[in-house]
Amino acid sequence: MAYPGSPFFNGDSLKYLQVITAHALIMIFFVVVPIFFGGFANYFLPYHVGSKDVAYPRLNNLGFWIQPCGFLLIAKMGSMRLEYWTTELKTSFYSGLAKVDHFLQQHVLDELFLDVKKTMINNDYSRIWKIIDDRMKEEDKSLYTWSEYRALQDKIIMQLELPKTSKLNINIFDENFYSYKLIFWKDIYNSTDTFWSLTKNALKLKRQKRFLVKCISANQTVAGWTFITPFSSNTEYTGFGIQDMLILGVYYAGISTTISIVNLLITRRTLSMPGLRNRRILIPFVTITILLMLRALSVITPVLGSAMLMLLTDRHWKTSFFDFSYGGDPIFFQHLFWFFGHPEVYVLIIPAFGIINSVLPTTSSRRVASKHHLIWAIYIMNYMGFLVWGHHMYLVGLDHRSRSLYSTITIMISLPATIKMVNWTYTLVNGMIKNNLILYGVVSFIFLFLVAGFTGMWLSHVSLNISMHDTLYVVAHFHLMLSGAVVMAIFVGFYFYYYSLMQTKYSKLFSFAHIIYYTIGQWTTFIPMFWVAFSGLPRRLHDFPLIYLGWQSMSTVGHFISMIGVFCFYTTLLESSFERKLTPITFNLVPKFYVNSAFLYLKNINKKLNKKKKTNLLTKKTK
């Protein structure tokens, strides 16, 4: 994306959609949520409620190992090669194929066939392509598109049974393989779009593994990570393959999440220490927000699961939940998905609030200002998040009354967010600030959350949302919130609890470099996207006009700066693990004599210091 012309994807827009779909689902379902569940919730919640472990450890283990199954499905989907033609290509080339077939019936068995056969007998393959090309020039090229013209050449060559080892412009067998398959429009029933033809061809060919892998990717995912209907619910737009892998991957993530929800909520309910059950103020902020996240997920996860089940039945069992022609409603799926999708944003950001509220007193050397108001603001923000999913759907045909309602409630959410911002600022202003790594992370989080919240308020207004809808403005907004604020809070919490998690200290050099580089990279990556969006560049595009080159290159540079920060983070982990291993080794390698002598030397110094203190106290008393 740094340069126009799609240098990375080579003009393949469907491949670009495939990659960003995998990116979105992996980062939401398999990165941020597992970090809060598997990292913070499983470690801190039993400890903070007074339990030794979660209620069902084996069930917890089952939920952990289900998670990689969904990850592998979606990751495989993002890296698949698109080998076969799609339904979209079938419909767009259908009219031209009839003309091509008519031409072939007239001319394949005429003197062209004889001329080519003669040259093959004489082993003069260099003239074959010239003969075919000369014959094609006699036809009216205006009747054919470029793809049809190339497809016509391919079919003539295939019907002549030319050997593949010949020096006949081998590119026609590779680059135009799509067009070659499109020519056989009468044999559509033998295409790889159906399961039965797939198994038939797999048994016929001995290269079963390679053939099956290619056929799974027969149709790309044009529905995106939001599973937009009717693309995702109809096999005419997304055939058997990638879209089904996405649905199964989301199901695996939902099953793992549900297992963790049940386990952790039962742990809180049944294994809490006496007196803690009805006194929530004694529970740390992190645990309060995690419990709130669990309750929200217990409401929205079944909704997503039911929507995915309806998609599967529409695709494979001929139901019509989202098929308008049979009485269904495509917009109904968007209501179901965004009823899950928008509270999911608060599921991700509310534990981040809890981490910041917990670590802020250590950097300012005072209690958090107005702790009760902070707790109530988090609760109100979470419950109001269930009422505003419609602001993702302003342009799907909602009536004016509904859009005004969703817009008003979305704007109201800024009130509890403002309460938190004021309390954090007041805590820092009236405290004795410690200049350490945690302070830098907290300040970075506050500014990232502030800008992401302001840009979200812009999108909450209907008129402004219409102008910014499906532009890079939306991409910059939610990336500043998720990859900026939420991920920064995760890093802050990780460094704050680093010693209790790793039993060793982290490197100050690499940890400071990590926070600074990652913060600079986030701003450099996403701020230019606001200006690009104001100029009208849509999202989900792999190519752009040359006029946007400056801002797009700046975003690419910012991404690499963020990657330097992530590299410093992993270097911190590696360095601390080496330090933990080397410390006992170096201690054991030191000769015992030197260890004992150093211990005795320090002991004598300590005795002398104690004697000096005692004499100083005696002199003060005598005076």
Please give a structural write-up.
The structure is a single chain. The protein has 623 residues and is mostly helical. Helix content is 71%, strand content 0%. It is globular and about 105 Å long. It starts with 12 loop residues before the first helix and ends with a helix. 35% of the residues are buried. About 16% of the residues have low confidence.
Report the major sheet. none
Helical segment tally? 23
Strand content: under 5%
Shape: globular
Q: Runs with pLDDT <50, length 5+?
A: 83-110, 140-146, 163-199, 205-218, 585-597
End-to-end gap: 80 Å
| Category by helix and strand content | mainly alpha
Q: Helicity level, as a percent range?
A: over 70%
Number of strands: 0
Rg over alpha carbons: 32 Å
Order of helices and strands: HHHHHHHHHHHHHHHHHHHHHHH
What is the residue-mean pLDDT, rounded to a whole number?
A: 76
Task: Throw out a few tags for this protein.
mainly alpha; 23 helices; globular
Secondary structure layout plus pairing:
Blueprint lengths: L12 H37 L7 H22 L8 H21 L3 H11 L6 H10 L8 H14 L11 H4 L2 H7 L11 H10 L3 H9 L25 H29 L14 H32 L13 H35 L6 H14 L15 H13 L1 H16 L7 H24 L1 H7 L3 H25 L1 H5 L5 H27 L14 H41 L2 H31 L1
Helix pairs in contact: 1-2, 1-11, 2-11, 3-6, 4-5, 6-8, 11-12, 12-13, 12-14, 13-16, 13-17, 13-19, 14-16, 16-17, 17-19, 17-21, 19-21, 21-22
